[in-house]
Amino acid sequence: MKTGTTSASAVAPDPPVARPRVVEGNPTPDLTGLFHRLNNQLGVVLANAELLESRLSEETHRARAAQVVSGAVEAIATAQQIRRASGL
To answer: In the prediction, which pLDDT does 18 show?
Structure first.
Protein backbone atom coordinates (compact mmCIF):
# COMPACT_ATOMS: atom_id res chain seq x y z
CA MET A 1 0.00 0.00 0.00
CA LYS A 2 1.30 3.45 -0.87
CA THR A 3 1.78 5.94 1.93
CA GLY A 4 0.36 9.43 1.67
CA THR A 5 -2.65 8.38 -0.38
CA THR A 6 -6.18 7.88 0.72
CA SER A 7 -8.87 5.69 -0.67
CA ALA A 8 -12.60 5.78 -0.38
CA SER A 9 -12.40 3.01 2.21
CA ALA A 10 -10.18 5.22 4.42
CA VAL A 11 -12.96 7.77 4.88
CA ALA A 12 -14.84 7.25 8.11
CA PRO A 13 -18.52 6.47 7.65
CA ASP A 14 -21.16 8.72 9.13
CA PRO A 15 -21.74 7.86 12.78
CA PRO A 16 -24.95 5.99 13.49
CA VAL A 17 -27.88 8.11 14.53
CA ALA A 18 -28.29 7.67 18.25
CA ARG A 19 -31.81 7.11 19.42
CA PRO A 20 -32.78 8.70 22.73
CA ARG A 21 -32.79 6.07 25.45
CA VAL A 22 -36.20 5.66 27.03
CA VAL A 23 -36.09 4.78 30.71
CA GLU A 24 -38.30 1.78 31.46
CA GLY A 25 -41.75 2.90 32.53
CA ASN A 26 -41.02 6.51 31.51
CA PRO A 27 -41.88 7.55 27.96
CA THR A 28 -39.60 10.64 28.21
CA PRO A 29 -36.32 10.24 26.31
CA ASP A 30 -33.09 10.37 28.29
CA LEU A 31 -32.72 14.14 28.03
CA THR A 32 -29.66 14.17 30.27
CA GLY A 33 -27.81 12.08 27.71
CA LEU A 34 -29.00 14.28 24.87
CA PHE A 35 -27.83 17.43 26.65
CA HIS A 36 -24.48 15.77 27.30
CA ARG A 37 -24.05 14.91 23.62
CA LEU A 38 -25.10 18.41 22.56
CA ASN A 39 -22.63 19.99 24.98
CA ASN A 40 -19.83 17.75 23.66
CA GLN A 41 -20.61 18.67 20.05
CA LEU A 42 -20.74 22.38 20.84
CA GLY A 43 -17.42 22.03 22.67
CA VAL A 44 -15.83 20.64 19.51
CA VAL A 45 -17.21 23.54 17.47
CA LEU A 46 -15.93 26.02 20.05
CA ALA A 47 -12.45 24.50 20.25
CA ASN A 48 -12.03 24.43 16.49
CA ALA A 49 -13.33 27.98 16.07
CA GLU A 50 -10.90 29.23 18.71
CA LEU A 51 -8.04 27.41 17.01
CA LEU A 52 -9.00 28.83 13.64
CA GLU A 53 -9.34 32.33 15.08
CA SER A 54 -5.85 32.15 16.58
CA ARG A 55 -4.26 30.97 13.34
CA LEU A 56 -5.87 33.40 10.90
CA SER A 57 -3.87 36.44 9.89
CA GLU A 58 -6.47 38.46 8.00
CA GLU A 59 -8.63 40.60 10.28
CA THR A 60 -11.90 39.97 8.41
CA HIS A 61 -11.40 36.21 8.66
CA ARG A 62 -10.52 36.45 12.36
CA ALA A 63 -13.69 38.48 12.91
CA ARG A 64 -15.78 35.77 11.28
CA ALA A 65 -14.11 33.08 13.37
CA ALA A 66 -14.76 35.22 16.46
CA GLN A 67 -18.45 35.26 15.54
CA VAL A 68 -18.44 31.45 15.46
CA VAL A 69 -16.70 31.40 18.86
CA SER A 70 -19.28 33.78 20.28
CA GLY A 71 -22.16 31.79 18.80
CA ALA A 72 -20.82 28.52 20.21
CA VAL A 73 -20.42 30.06 23.69
CA GLU A 74 -23.98 31.40 23.53
CA ALA A 75 -25.29 28.03 22.34
CA ILE A 76 -23.58 26.24 25.23
CA ALA A 77 -25.07 28.73 27.70
CA THR A 78 -28.52 28.33 26.13
CA ALA A 79 -28.32 24.53 26.34
CA GLN A 80 -27.38 24.83 30.02
CA GLN A 81 -30.31 27.17 30.65
CA ILE A 82 -32.72 24.79 28.92
CA ARG A 83 -31.35 21.90 30.96
CA ARG A 84 -31.79 23.80 34.23
CA ALA A 85 -35.29 24.95 33.24
CA SER A 86 -36.27 21.36 32.47
CA GLY A 87 -35.24 20.29 35.98
CA LEU A 88 -32.40 18.03 34.89
So the answer is: 55
